[in-house]
Write a structure and sequence with these properties.
By secondary structure, the chain is α+β, with helices and mostly antiparallel strands.
Length: 196
């Protein structure tokens, strides 16, 4: 730097560059030391301890995580599927519970608990359950479990907030462990519709 006096602008620019460089240095990750390409030579016995560099260690890789962190605007309300109307609860329920049939993003029917289904008539739908569907404890999910879920949700004594989603269901039946029959009060193309 020459002997002339620096203007205020030059001082500020100089300080700004220094602060930016220090900030970048503070925020950057330290670069791990390069692995030696040749084996180090053993130190001579006459070398003093003060001249021997400490051994460099490579930082350990971060441990694998075994948890999923979900951020939402509110907590889940309940684990009981028919007893909520909050989107945040539904987000969690979709990861815990399953449906007979799911509608894909391109509006096609996709079997979940049901491996097949048919429209018997305008108001009767028959679902065949997958044989390998299990509860968290390993017990099989049967047609009787599906009937129980429908009937419980529709029970007026429960006062389930989601009962309105099934307001067109007249009855359900489980003639065997793999078959669910849903009868509606009126034709309901929302339940199962033909592919587009």
């Amino acid at each position: 730097m020459d002997a002339r006096a620096m203007s205020r602008r030059e001082v500020l620019l100089s300080l700004g560059g220094t602060i930016a460089a220090l900030t970048l240095a503070a925020c950057s990750q330290p670069t791990p030391p390069a692995a030696p390409t040749t084996a180090p030579k053993p130190a001579a016995a006459a070398t003093s301890a003060a001249t021997i560099a400490p051994a460099q260690t490579t930082p350990a890789a971060p441990a694998a995580r075994s948890q999923l962190v979900v951020a939402q605007t509110a907590d889940m309300v309940t684990l009981d599927p028919p007893m909520y109307r909050a989107r945040q609860t539904q987000n969690i329920h979709q990861m815990l519970y399953d449906t007979l049939v799911h509608r894909t993003d391109d509006l096609q029917n996709q079997g979940r608990l049901a491996e097949s289904w048919e429209v018997v008539d305008d108001k009767t739908f028959k679902f065949k359950m997958r044989g390998n569907a299990k509860f968290h404890d390993g017990a099989p999910v049967t047609a009787r479990d599906v009937k129980f879920s429908y009937d419980r949700t529709l029970d007026p004594a429960l006062k389930a907030p989601r009962a309105g989603l099934l307001d067109n269901v007249a009855s359900t039946d489980a003639p065997d462990s793999a078959t669910v029959i849903v009868r509606t009060k009126a034709p309901d193309p929302r339940l199962i519709r033909p592919p587009l």
